[in-house]
Amino acid sequence: MQTFLDYLFVEPFPLPWLIEDIVALLLGAYFLSVMIRRDKEKSVFTLLEFFSFIFLYASIYENAACVMGLYSYGRSLLMIGYVPFSVPLIEALVLFAGLWLLEKTTLPKWLWPPILGLFGMAQDFSLDPVAIRQVFPMSGVTSGRWNWLIDPATYPNILHIPVFNFPGWMLIMLYGSTCILLGRWWYQRSGHNKGVGILYPFLSMIVALLLMISPLSNFLLWLQPFMQKGSIAEWIMLGIHLLIPVLLLLFLWRGRMTARFTREDWPIFVIPTILHLTDIVFALIGGFTEIYWLVFLTSAVQTAFLVGVFFANRRQFSAVSRV
After folding, report:
1. CB neighbours of 158 closer than 8 A, spacing ≥ 6?
2. SS3 label, residue 205
3. Are strands 161-162 and 157-158 parallel, antiparallel or unpaired?
């Protein structure tokens, strides 16, 4: 039976996938518009960082994983090679919304990368279980929005997703944010030289990509060369990647902020919340009951954290204003 999508696209794809792409694109447009309006001078370099992250880092790595036969994606509204544009876009939105939040805190910058990795994993715990279950027939082929090309049953897995996938988000955020912060430091040390400001976003993401494909990643995912992929080391590393950022937040930050949240800071809260809500809605529509617990749990924990940060900020600066 034909749908209106058959008249819009040469290769039609399922309506849920289209809606999810549109949500990501709208969030991207929202983020960029607010960011540019907030600080026009600084936004030039943030834009270069944002697009370098998408096109020189995340999308190249995702395409490499597809070429190597690790996983594949279904068709999308916009594609970068084998990868839907919405995939690296969501990764970029999670990273830059997180950076925006951490800029408001008193946390030292050396703590930012693992905490941003935690934010990435929290988003992924609700995103990926839904994506692999959104399976539809299209163009004579049955495909999920995201398809593992290895048998997850042969690896330690969470809801049919290899365990190492989730720390993978930690590494994407860890390397990306570390290289961006080093690039920003270089730009400041140069006396805000415009040439350095234009150059560092590109160089930083090339370095991040090299780190992502280096032996260091295998060590941080499953302790290679001491352990192998598919071993209990994947569970150990997942625990470490979750535990360390949580402990850093609990013991090294008391919720102190450097500035009051304003209307211009809403992307900090809107982006992760809308992404989680989208996952919840499509998990419910799809009737994917076996993943409800994880999708709802991670969405609730991250949302509760953001709500707590918001009200802690209000209390702090309301108290200051009364003094």
Report:
1. 129, 166, 294
2. helix
3. antiparallel
pTM of the model: 0.93
Q: Are strands 71-73 and 146-148 parallel, antiparallel or unpaired?
A: antiparallel
Q: What is the pLDDT of residues 190-216, one digit of tens each?
A: 999 999 999 999 999 999 999 999 999
Which of 159, 146, 120 lies closest to 242, judged by CA?
A: 120
Residue 212 neighbours by CB distance under 10 Å = 20
Cis, bond preceding 225 (omega within 30 deg of 0):
yes
Please enumerate in sequence order all residues whose Cβ is within 8 A of that of 145, keeping only pairs 6 or more positions apart, or say none.
16, 17, 20, 73, 74, 131, 132, 134
Q: How many residues does the chain have?
A: 323
- Cβ-contact 282, 16 below 8 angstroms: yes
Q: Where are the beta strands (DSSP E) in the chain?
A: 71-73, 79-80, 83-84, 135-138, 141-144, 146-148, 157-158, 161-162
19: region left, alpha or beta (phi > 0 left; psi from -120 to 50 alpha): alpha
Query: Nearest Cα to 177, choosing from 89, 95, 60?
Result: 95
C-alpha angle 36-116-191 in degrees, rounded to nearest 5: 50
The neighbouring-strand residues paired with 137 are: 142
Helix (H) or strand (E) holding 321: helix 292-322
CB 34 within 8 Å of CB 42:
no
